[in-house]
Amino acid sequence: MNPFEYAQPNTEAEAVALLAERGSTVLASGMDLMPLLRKSVVETERVVDISRVESLRGIEAVGGGVTIGVLSTLEDIACNPLLADYPSLKDVNEGIRAIQVQQNGTLGGDLCHLPNCWYFRSGYGLLGRENGKSLPEIGDNRYHAIFGNAGPAKFVSASRFAPALIAWGAKVRIAGPEPDAEKWLPLEEFYQTPKTERHGVTVLTPGQLLTHVWLPSAENKVSATYEVLEMEGLDWPLASAAATLELEAGRVRTATIVLGHVAPTPWFSLVAADVLVGQPVTPQLAQAAGEAAVSEATPLSENAYKVRLAQTSVKRALLKATNQLEGGL
Ligand SMILES: Cc1cc2nc3c(=O)[nH]c(=O)nc-3n(C[C@H](O)[C@H](O)[C@H](O)COP(=O)(O)OP(=O)(O)OC[C@H]3O[C@@H](n4cnc5c(N)ncnc54)[C@H](O)[C@@H]3O)c2cc1C
Hints:
Layout: E1 5-7, H1 12-21, E2 24-27, H2 33-38, E3 46-49, E4 59-62, E5 65-69, H3 74-79, H4 87-96, H5 99-104, H6 107-111, H7 118-124, E6 129-130, E7 133-134, H8 135-138, H9 162-167, E8 171-175, E9 182-186, H10 187-190, E10 209-215, E11 221-228, E12 239-248, E13 251-260, E14 267-268, H11 270-276, H12 283-293, H13 305-321
Parallel strand pairs: 1-3, 2-3
Antiparallel strand pairs: 4-5, 5-10, 6-7, 8-9, 8-10, 11-12, 12-13, 13-14
Helix pairs in contact: 11-12, 12-13
Bound molecules: flavin-adenine dinucleotide (FAD).
Flavin-adenine dinucleotide (FAD) is lined by residues 25-33, 70, 96, 101, 105-106, 108-110, 112-114, 160, 204, 209-210, 234-236.
């Protein structure tokens, strides 16, 4: 591990100032960052521990929606009554199946989570390259992207909450790098697919901090997340889908379908949404939406099996959101 300075600010302004000064990295609960620092996969001059910044905690009703501070734990999100009408978020927490992660992992840490790609985690960089070659392309790519993989990035976005939050139309607040600078942007615009090693997985630039997530009102909407996991215990999904539907007289008025763990960013499926609008959700329609969602998949040499899993995730998320998911399908 390379040596680095440790700073523990008490306010957002102090955190932004510390982050802006020089090559610094945000530390939340550190579950993912600490192992990466230990292995020198992430190198930094300063770690800025934001755990004492009270303004980054809390879940509040604001402007007809709900604002969630990035230090909220995954369990805070699952248990808060203000979020009871957003069941797709609770689904995510239930899928994690590890009390330590649920009680310590933070929303910010999940949203900014670096890829689980084994080439990245073995020190080959985000794009996993060696001697000018893409290791995911020529090597073991069974857990890699089946969408958005035409460029050099083949990893999948690691965030478990992002698909559900994006399907709800969430916005995120970013503070910095100037002392009073802040902006809100749709969560889907927070993610980017890196084209070179200089780019990150989010649009955050040095000196910026993710501070809050805002969710619009859940009125008249239903939602669910369905994750396909290989193991019963602590595991990352092979594929997931989040659905948020606005229903009117039993028919879908609006639909937002977002897939997770299948592309370098959370992956919108506009074609699946098109299949649904104007129709009542039936098992047949859910199947058709799943098929549409994967119609443009471009699997790599060893991950074609993920296409079927993504299709099934969409189908089951739709059936779950409309209380029609019974046992295996
Ligand atoms: C051995 C182990 C196995 C795990 N396995 C799983 C698993 O199978 N499934 C699962 O879902 N989780 C797993 N986790 C937990 C995982 O680390 C979490 O998803 C957790 O939510 C990360 O939150 P954190 O607060 O610990 O993030 P940290 O580790 O503190 O941060 C994660 C990343 O986000 C950045 N970051 C954090 N907050 C902000 C912010 N506000 N602004 C900008 N950047 C920020 C950090 O710089 C870092 O790059 C595992 C953890 C461990 C230790």
